[in-house]
Write a structure and sequence with these properties.
With 614 residues, the protein is an alpha+beta fold. It contains 19 helices and 16 strands.
Length: 614
């Protein structure tokens, strides 16, 4: 128990700096990006459904196979439920919540609902320990038709893997999703969390003992979600998430003993997504290592970390082999749905930046040392590009900003809502009447991240331009975490963030916030967390310093007294006072910085000692 408390204390104390605010409303973007998942729902829609133009669909899914497969998500602009990208979507939504759920504010409940909509389906899709349904519907018949999901007349055949037809990549990713989600619901719904872990245990065992590529068993998936990377990365990915969820040595040892054989220590990647998971598992293992959770595998985990850092360096353009970028600065991997790689890379960069800061380390690249703040700034630049800071001044999130895609390659959004016009839309009639329309979508697919621009920042907003205008759930899932991070960082209470939320129950008594004002500077302090370790109560305090002068402040110094623990977010001077953090040269008018400290005492005394107005 003492080791657990010490580990939780380490995690709680891990905090990270963020640059000053930019011009985007990340909170609004976060809300919209979560809303998109409600438009992708299959099955019986709940009473609190907010995307009102959608209706129930796929209500007989699985019936012909004697199993209930109603629910889940349509992956993109079609009406097929593909298990591999759906599970990856759930994993990344869960990871976003685990890292930045406390920064999601009023959207955390919606984000958790989005995860549970996926895991409820994945539980149904796993009716036996060694049986997993990996697809409902097939892309060939579905793509022949253009129908809203409520009118589907296409095949709803269900396809599965089992011991005679294995699929380690599919089972491994689904195990990862279940394990990650189990942590999300650990406190709010412990019984559900345990159920998810049971499925995760069984699926990992199935994936590891009966090895094979899922698209060899579910061949109809090959044209749409072929597993090019194979299953080795998913086995490591699942093991990493099971270790994170359980702290069981078996999964730690699996990572340590199989890192070389399964490519975790060998592959240096320049992409991360629903197919290739190496960069993701390497980042997770690097986080274990920096968090002191490598056990006896520090040397092997160091190799994972080397490859994780090569991915980060390549994104930053500071490696020997770097990712391609457009003239406007966007990461570019491929013409077809390129933004999936941008959002997933941005998430890894953001998380790794935070953990590097917690470990008080820099990123070491071929071209030199890179500060964690640079990783975060680059991730922010990618998100800002998506939201409209690009050569076309186009937001690639539907419904965000004033100029965004209006002819999305999406069946449901492009056809009049069944609630507005219940007339049946036939398979080919949908193409003739709705697909070919040169007009805006009748239903706004709010929050959807479309495929995005080409290698030269060009983009054509046309419904038949599926490479650029089709959205996907796995485009949005990693973005939830980055948007929450950026939104929280620009709010008064969250410039510095804990990397993970501790599992202990908070202490009931909470000291009241303390405000002091030395015009033109305002200082607000409050307790943000408390816990007991070895019989002593520790408090985490947040202090917000706001420039109220109307001018830029430079040469800023604070005096902090009655401080009996560590402080992050300010730079201590030779004279014992505290100045602005080294990554901030000045504090513009009406902007704030935040610093945090931890000790087992009441709120410290903080006062302004000196400053100059520019």
């Amino acid at each position: 128990m003492a080791k657990f408390i010490q580990a939780a204390l380490f995690l709680l104390m891990a905090v990270v700096p963020l640059a000053l605010a930019g011009g985007h409303d990340y909170g609004q973007a976060l809300s919209k990006s979560i809303l998109f998942f409600e438009a992708q729902r299959s099955g019986y829609l709940p009473g609190n459904q907010r995307v009102n133009w959608r209706g129930n669909s796929g209500l007989l899914d699985g019936k012909a196979s004697g199993v209930d497969l109603v629910g889940g998500y349509y992956d993109a602009g079609d009406n097929v439920k593909f298990g591999l990208p759906m599970a990856f979507t759930v994993t990344m939504m869960s990871w976003s919540i685990l890292e930045y759920g406390s920064q999601m504010s009023g959207e955390l409940g919606h984000a958790m609902d989005a995860v549970k909509w996926g895991t409820d389906y994945l539980i149904k899709a796993h009716p036996e320990p060694r049986v997993l349904y990996g697809e409902v519907g097939d892309g060939n018949t579905d793509h022949y038709c253009w129908q809203r999901p409520e009118d589907m007349t296409t095949s709803r055949s269900a396809y599965r893997i089992d011991v005679n037809n294995p699929g380690s990549d599919l089972a491994g990713e689904t195990a990862a999703a279940m394990a990650a989600a189990s942590i999300v619901f650990h406190r709010s719904n412990p019984a559900y969390s345990r159920e998810l872990l049971t499925h995760a245990f069984q699926l990992f065992d199935f994936a590891d003992k009966y090895r094979g590529k899922y698209d060899s068993s579910i061949s109809v998936a090959q044209k749409y979600y072929r597993s090019v990377s194979g299953y080795a990365d998913e086995l490591l990915w699942a093991a990493a998430w099971l270790y994170k969820a359980t702290n069981e040595p078996y999964y730690l040892n699996y990572l340590g003993e199989n890192g070389d054989a399964l490519g975790g220590t060998g592959w240096a990647m320049t992409e991360f997504g629903w197919d290739v998971k190496y960069a993701g598992v390497q980042t997770l293992v690097a986080m274990f290592l920096m968090g002191g959770k490598a056990g006896g595998h520090s040397q092997v985990f160091g190799k994972y970390q080397e490859k994780a850092e090569k991915f980060m360096c390549s994104c930053m353009g500071k490696a020997n082999q770097n990712v391609q970028k457009t003239p406007g600065g966007l990461i570019f991997r491929q013409r077809w749905n390129n933004l999936q790689f941008v959002t997933s890379a941005s998430f890894l960069l953001t998380v790794y930046s935070d953990h590097l800061t917690s470990a008080r380390k820099d990123l070491q690249c071929a071209s030199g040392s890179v500060a964690p703040s640079e990783l975060l700034a680059f991730a922010k630049s990618q998100v800002d590009y998506i939201l409209g800071d690009n050569p076309r001044a186009t937001s690639y999130m539907v419904g965000y900003g004033s100029h965004f895609p209006r002819q999305v390659h999406h069946r449901g959004s492009s056809i009049v809502s069944i609630k507005v016009d219940p007339s049946f839309v036939s398979c080919r009639g949908g193409y003739a009447t709705w697909f070919s329309r040169k007009a805006n979508d009748p239903n706004l697919l709010t929050g959807a991240i479309v495929g995005g621009p080409d290698a030269y920042d060009n983009f054509a907003d046309q419904r038949d331009n599926y490479e650029q205008t089709e959205p996907a759930t796995y485009n949005n899932a990693p973005l939830l975490g980055v948007l929450a991070r950026l939104n929280g960082g620009h709010a008064a209470y969250n410039q510095l963030l804990p990397v993970e939320v501790p599992l202990q129950k908070p202490i009931a008594a909470q000291p009241k916030p303390v405000s002091t004002s030395t015009a033109p500077v305002e200082i607000n302090q409050k307790e943000t967390a408390s816990w007991v370790s070895n019989g002593k109560t520790y408090y985490r305090y947040s202090a917000i310093v706001t420039n109220k002068s109307g001018k830029t402040i430079k040469n800023f110094n604070l005096t902090v007294s009655k401080l009996y623990g560590p402080l992050w977010g300010l730079t201590k001077t030779a004279g014992g006072s505290y100045g602005l953090p080294k990554w901030v040269n000045s504090l513009p008018a009406d902007k704030s910085i935040e610093f945090v400290y931890i000790h087992s005492a009441p709120i410290a005394d903080v006062s302004v000692s000196s400053y100059t107005l520019a």
